[in-house]
Specification:
Aspartate Aminotransferase, domain 2, four-stranded antiparallel β-sheet, 40% helix, binds pyridoxal-5'-phosphate
């Protein structure tokens, strides 16, 4: 058991020293990774020796994503309470595919699903699944949508597949996340066989450009554009399309949590009218990887798409998680989601979302006041900034990453090179923001 204590102590030391270290690993830490590249060992080493090696070489070669000054990608940190729940659940080593494999894992999914429904104002008919991330959550929701749409026109896609099936029109915005296209490809919808709808300068679908729909249609909307944070006009689109032959899905990988904030919940207006919505818990709910959530208004469609039976697998009257997920064996992801909501409560989630949004606005104001151009309307937690021409913006990003006070990445937004700032960590304090802003301005002035 000493090895577990040692791991906990090393983990705690890592987290406690995070604020004092560079957010990006130093070159010598990256060079040291070669020490791990040894031939297949004939004999093992003691566990403590392994842990010492992992900590000595591994910890410095991490990116400080779980601290308060990482603003890249839309990553999210880990709340200590959820990490603690994750450690305990790791010790349990549950197979949460079945009630029989993990009563506690199954129960926490049921409770978490109910809480998530309440957070979004969804009725109790809605069901869902806990998967690895938004890519798989999109896939899961869309599999349910495919099943429901084809069943409505007399086709059993689970039994008969897609060859010879009635056509489904698939509509997505021009600024949909690329993993949504990938999920559609995995479902046999074709990555290129999509009706792409033009968007406005914030990346929002222009409802007047939606195609005329005839027959089954899968409409994919977005709540939270990866660059601007903008939301498609969900309610307006729901009211525009024929409900009986359409399935409306919303990719809300991080925008989902706007629903918890009184000042942003209008962005999620219309969600109860859609058929499915997905999010990441490992992003803005700040639980450990990997954790995504699929919510579906017709759980029986999801069940049709995902369930299977085998003589050796016991079935109970209870909700069997694997009837709703692509996987059978899986870890008990509901534990950390439950732990986050149980410890934060509605008020804590609201506080975290509102604080991060306010901090994003502060970044935008500070950068604009110094003469740099903000390319987006800061409606949520995302800021796009240009430091001048493409070369100067890229050089500023390089310097910021090298400086190590904070970390931001680059992007292209509608033909412009920009730096993205994404604020989505429970750990980000206002001091972190001021320190990071000063570093950004310093690096920009040197570029
Ligand atoms: C809008 C959107 N959809 C999907 C994804 C993919 O999420 P994941 O990496 O968890 O699969 C992301 C990731 O940033 C996203 O922002």
């Amino acid at each position: 058991m000493d090895i577990l204590k040692s791991a906990a102590e090393r983990g705690m030391h890592f987290i406690e020293t995070l604020p004092d270290r560079s957010v990006a690993p130093q070159p010598d830490a990256l060079a040291a990774l070669d020490q791990l590249d040894i031939p297949l060992p004939e004999d093992g080493i003691p566990a403590e020796e392994m842990l010492e090696l992992l900590d000595r070489v591994g910890s410095p070669a991490t990116i400080g994503t779980t601290g308060g000054r990482f603003f890249g990608f839309v990553i999210g940190a880990t709340l200590p309470a959820t990490l603690a729940a994750n450690w305990l659940a790791g010790a349990w080593d549950q197979n949460a595919g079945l009630w029989a494999g993990s009563p506690i894992g199954s129960q926490l999914e049921v409770v978490s699903l109910r809480w998530l429904r309440e957070l979004l104002g969804l009725n109790e008919r809605w069901g869902g699944a806990f998967v690895t991330g938004a890519t798989m959550a999109n896939f899961t929701c869309l599999a349910a949508g495919r099943s429901a749409l084809l069943r409505n026109v007399g086709w059993d896609v689970e039994r008969d597949g897609l060859f010879g099936a009635p056509e489904i029109t698939v509509v997505i915005g021009d600024e949909a996340h690329p993993t949504l296209t990938k999920s559609l490809g995995l479902l046999g919808m074709g990555r290129e066989r999509l009706e792409r709808v033009p968007v406005d300068d914030q990346g929002r679908i222009r409802p007047e450009c939606l195609p005329r729909l005839e027959g089954p249609a899968l409409i994919c909307l977005q709540a939270g554009n990866i660059n601007t944070g903008s939301f498609d006009p969900i309610r307006q689109i729901c009211e525009h399309v024929p409900p009986e032959s359409t399935w409306i899905h919303v990719d809300a990988a991080f925008g989902f949590w706007a629903a918890a904030s009184p000042s942003r919940s209008h962005l999620m207006e219309g969600i109860p009218l859609v058929d499915s919505v997905c999010t990441d818990a490992h992003k803005w709910l700040n639980v450990p990887y990997d954790s995504g959530i699929a919510l579906v208004s017709e759980p029986q469609a999801l069940r049709r798409a995902m369930s299977f039976s085998a003589a050796y697998l016991p079935e109970t009257e209870r909700r069997e998680p694997s009837h709703y997920t692509p996987e059978l064996s899986r870890r008990a992801r509901g534990v950390e989601i439950w732990a986050a909501i149980q410890t934060l409560g509605r008020a804590g989630i609201r506080e975290m979302i509102e604080r991060n949004c306010r901090q994003a606005t502060r970044f935008a104001e500070g950068l604009a006041a110094a003469g740099y151009e903000i390319l987006n309307d800061v409606v949520l937690n995302q800021v796009l900034v240009s430091f001048g021409d493409a070369g100067r913006t890229r050089e500023t990003i390089r310097r910021i990453q090298e400086d190590g006070t904070c970390w931001c990445g680059g992007t292209q937004w509608q033909g412009r090179t920009a730096m993205r700032i994404s604020v989505c960590s429970w750990a980000t304090t206002d001091d972190d923001v001021e320190l990071s802003l000063a570093a950004m301005l310093r690096c920009a002035a040197q570029s």
